[in-house]
Design goal:
Ubiquitin-like (UB roll), Rossmann fold, alpha/beta, Alpha-Beta Plaits, four-stranded parallel β-sheet
Length: 584
């Protein structure tokens, strides 16, 4: 192509499009320049200085992550002086970093540890200057350990640029600079929505999930407890990464089998409850859209980080929110009512453990009294995908070679619609598959609604239901959501009909497959691979619409009655309330 920029990297010719950075150009010819502050999700800002390179015509070193390639550049990425500079930068970082790798949750999966090992650093010539700073566990979802912060700024950039939450920022100056919530309050008192994207992007162990593995081991050892587990849609396409498998590898059966080996008496699938969610949410949409029983647009409510954001930042949309609980909460209450009744188990003895891709789910299980609709706390513990992977390793289970297991049938059978909840657009697609049937009495000829799929931050589409146009929007990554809300506010102010009838929101990029509790290292390539695994699972299902799930049909016939009925509302729905962005 005529408009490509020609340059050399270590005397290797390379042609790249305008706007390509030196870092990206080097990777195009298989040259790896070390980085710490850089992440492809974020705007490069050259904080760490490890990626310095030399350009033949420049008297100063350039930072490869944020310097665009220019015609005729002659870049040297590695020479004795550059290597020595990088080593010195690493040694300075290590001098302000605790030397307790064996106790760190990122041990063996730490970017700083890996680079230090690559450079063969055994001794640090500088005096240790670790600042004694308190750990913040106030959210009981994510933990901030500022002593381990290397000031790369990724977490603040994620919180501010990607998520639009602004719960984290740099405080102090010089050596006393630290990452903390704005106004120096605790995370729980801050606007934090517990999405965990800060922990997913942190290169070290400065931010990580609140560990509840010990609580689960204690429950499994208690003979009086009847421990049951459920796995979310996104877990099955990501957990393999902790064992060396490629992103998107489907390991549903192996995950069931591993949970049984760990000692769980029953294993359910959150996908079943996603089907239940669709019945309730699609019914709610049809009531509002066709029968005009409530305001439009209807907005999905499966993501607890989004609901927390809405209550704090957009309470004017509370009436637009679906009252349907998230799938894992629905399964929790059904396990302690329907399942307990069927098997004659005292619900007080049931310990329900949800394995989720999300740190905000840890907060959700106690967000209101409605999370105890069974008469007991419906979900006892939430483990992230990362926590379950650690449990499997501790138990000595050869995970990848396990014979696939099965889920327990009455709360485990799922449709393809249930599994696509794990990807952005999936909730919308699943709901429309069923809403179409509820309106027309027929199923879609092609259930693949590709208009709502993709990685664009906001996607708009118009779906035809027998000549009636349904205008929808799908938004993921919290920083993209505000533009959708502002469009609706503009319609309200102008007295216009809302431009959307139905909106899906997911707080994390890519949806749950990119959740804050998933294996670290997610990029758009990884997210796309995980999403592909989700849709492969959908296509493999004999039943692909929630309303065709035979166990779900039996659940309503035997136990719940009508969708949106009294019992369904009491067990499966909740309410939202305005909150202050800052708890103080």
């Amino acid at each position: 192509m005529d408009n490509l920029i020609q340059l050399t990297i270590n005397d290797i010719p390379v042609a790249v499009p305008p706007g390509t950075t030196i870092l990206e150009a080097a990777r195009a010819v298989q040259v790896r320049i070390p980085t710490l502050c850089y992440h492809p999700d974020l705007l490069a800002w050259a904080a760490c200085g490890i990626c310095v390179v030399r350009e033949a015509r420049s008297p100063k070193l350039l930072r490869a992550c944020c310097t665009e390639a220019a015609p005729g550049m002659q870049i040297t990425t590695h020479d004795p002086e550059i290597v020595k500079i990088r080593q010195t930068v690493l040694e300075l970082i290590l001098s302000t970093h605790p030397n307790d790798c064996l106790q760190c949750p990122r041990n063996g999966n730490c970017e700083l540890q890996k680079i230090a090992a690559d450079f063969g650093i055994r001794d640090v010539p500088f005096e240790s200057r670790v600042m004694p700073l308190p750990r913040d566990e106030s959210t009981k979802s994510v933990v901030l350990n500022p002593e381990k912060c290397i000031k790369c700024g990724r977490c603040a950039l994620v919180c501010q640029q990607m998520q639009g939450v602004w719960a984290l920022e740099f405080l102090g100056r010089g050596e006393r600079t630290r990452i903390a919530p704005a106004a120096d309050v605790t995370l729980e008192e801050s606007p934090c929505i517990k999405c965990g994207q800060c922990s997913a992007h942190c290169p070290v162990g400065a931010i990580y999930e609140y560990d509840e593995v010990p609580k689960v081991w204690d429950a499994l050892k208690d003979p009086k407890k009847y421990c049951v587990a459920q796995i979310a849609p996104a877990v099955r396409v990501a957990i393999g990464e902790a064992f060396g498998k490629a992103p998107g590898t489907l390991l549903t059966g192996q995950t069931y089998a591993a949970l049984r080996r760990l000692g769980f008496r029953a294993v359910f699938d959150t996908n079943f409850a996603a089907d239940v969610t669709i019945i309730e949410e699609a019914s709610e949409f049809v009531e509002r859209f066709a029968r005009h029983t409530g305001p439009l647009p209807l907005i999905t409510s499966c993501c607890p980080a989004w609901t927390d954001y809405m209550e704090k930042r957009a309470p004017d949309f509370i009436d637009n929110f679906s009252s349907a609980k998230s799938p894992h909460e629905m399964l929790g209450v059904l396990a302690k009512t329907y399942y307990a009744e069927k098997l004659g188990i005292d619900p007080r003895d049931i310990v329900m453990v949800s394995v989720m891709p999300c740190t905000a789910k840890k907060y959700e299980i106690t967000r209101s009294e409605e999370m105890s609709a069974s008469g007991h706390q419906d979900i006892d513990v939430v483990l992230t995908t990362r926590e379950l992977a650690r449990m499997i390793k501790v138990a000595g289970i050869d995970f990848l070679n396990l014979p696939p297991g099965e889920a327990d049938s009455i709360l485990g059978t799922y449709s393809g619609a249930g599994t696509i909840f794990g990807a952005t657009g999936g909730v919308m697609e699943a709901a429309l598959r069923t809403a179409y049937n509820f309106v027309t009495g027929e199923d879609l000829r092609d259930v693949n609604l590709r208009q709502v799929r993709g990685m664009e931050g906001v996607r708009e589409a118009e779906i035809d239901i027998r000549g009636t146009k349904v205008r929808i929007a799908v938004a993921h990554q919290m920083g993209n959501v505000e533009q959708v809300l502002e469009a609706i506010r503009a319609d309200r102010k102008a007295g216009r009909e809302p431009r959307y009838h139905f909106i899906e929101v997911m707080a994390c990029r890519g949806g749950c497959i990119g959740g804050g509790g998933q294996p670290q290292g997610a990029t758009d390539e990884v997210r796309k691979a995980r999403t592909a695994g989700i849709y492969t699972d959908d296509e493999r299902c004999a039943v692909r619409c929630s309303h065709r799930n035979p166990d779900l049909i039996k659940l309503y016939a035997d136990f719940l009655g009508q969708p949106l009925g009294e019992k369904a509302h009491r067990l499966l729905h909740n309410h939202y309330h305005k909150k202050k962005a800052y708890a103080r």
